[in-house]
Each structure stands twice: as C-alpha cells, then as structure tokens.
Fold this sequence. Notes:
The complex is a heterodimer of chains A (109) and B (114).
Chain A: E1 4-7, E2 10-14, E3 19-25, E4 29-37, E5 43-49, E6 52-56, E7 59-64, E8 69-74, E9 83-91, E10 97-99, E11 103-108
Parallel strand pairs in A: 2-11
Antiparallel strand pairs in A: 1-3, 3-8, 4-5, 4-9, 6-7, 7-8, 9-10, 9-11
Chain B: E1 5-7, E2 10-13, E3 19-24, E4 31-37, E5 44-50, E6 53-57, E7 64-68, E8 74-78, E9 87-94, E10 104-105, E11 109-113
Amino acid sequence: KNEVEQSPQNLTAQEGEFITINCSYSVGISALHWLQQHPGGGIVSLFMLSSGKKKHGRLIATINIQEKHSSLHITASHPRDSAVYICAARRTPGNQFYFGTGTSLTVIP
Amino acid sequence: ETGVTQSPTHLIKTRGQQVTLRCSSQSGHNTVSWYQQALGQGPQFIFQYYREEENGRGNFPPRFSGLQFPNYSSELNVNALELDDSALYLCASSQWDRITGELFFGEGSRLTVL
Lengths: 109, 114
C-alpha cells in the first residue's frame, strides 16, 4: 500500500465543471503539497498546507489532519487546467516526501 | 519561472557508467531535494539536503549520492548506472523552517541509460 493515495487516476470534465481531486495519506506529516505537472515535465507548486484551507484564484485546497485527507478543487474548469495534479506529503519525523501517482485531468471545451 | 535551474536537460549514458546532475536553487533557499520520475509515474523522493547535510532519504541504494555546496546548489551522483535508472530527475528548492516551505521545481534532467 502506498503512503499517499490519489483518486481519481484520470478525470475528464467539460469546461465550466467543478472538479475535485482527493488525496489520502497514511503517515504523519508536517505538510502536504499540491503540485501541477504539464507535459514535458515542469512541475509547479500550487499549495502547501499544514491545516485548514487555502484558495488561489479558482483553486481551493483543503486538508483534514484527523482524517489524513486532502482535496484539491477547481471551480469553473478551463481547458488550460488540463495537466497532471500530484499530492505530496512531507513525513514527520524523517523529512521524506511521499508522492501520489497523480491525477491526469483533461478539460474539454 | 521558478529560479531553479538544472543541467544537463538531457543526457544518454550506458550501463555501468556514472552520471552527475546539477541543480541551482532559488535565491534565498537553503534546502534542495531530488526526485526520480519514471515515465507515467509520480515522482519518487531520493533525498534532501539542508545546510550541506543529507536530512531525509527515500528508498534508493547508496549508489545514489549527493552533495550540497555552501551556495546551496546541489549535485546528484549515480554510480554503476542500470537501465531502470532511465527517468526524469527533478530537483526542488525550498526555504527550510521548523515546519516546511513551498517547493520550487526545476525543469528536470532526462537521463536515458542504454
């Protein structure tokens, strides 16, 4: 069993739809990161969370420490949101990072 | 653009050879971490350096080693290359604090082992 599990693995949405990607982890963490990876490999950090909720534009990330679960929401999705979204947990103690396998999102116009 | 630069961007090696990959961290960041990403997979954590010392390591054998320099740039060295080492190698820099800092990734070095 992986320390970090993401769902769904693949997601296709119509432009404008509300999207949710889920991440569950099984280790103690100091922070959880949501990352976006476009074709070609470049990774951009979207959020770093240790508690609560963060919002940036149409993106919202939440974390429930007790349930060891985080979600990434995209409101009013757009084709440019098409990418792979990855959650990564920084373990404590030890500082190792554990990554989910990613959610491949395609938004259709 | 993140300010994290990696070199080389692409390279081809043969089995048994050694490779050194380089990463310059974003200005002001004192922590560098390295990841291996095989095709179609999520990144796998190799190790992390903070103030020139390794302070976290994933499940990689000792032939994966690293360095961090006083200017916080870093190298990843892989000895005795194997075919399965073919992957995208990513580094990320952050400003370490008691909790953690946001990660800034480079574009990666794509290694092919023949």
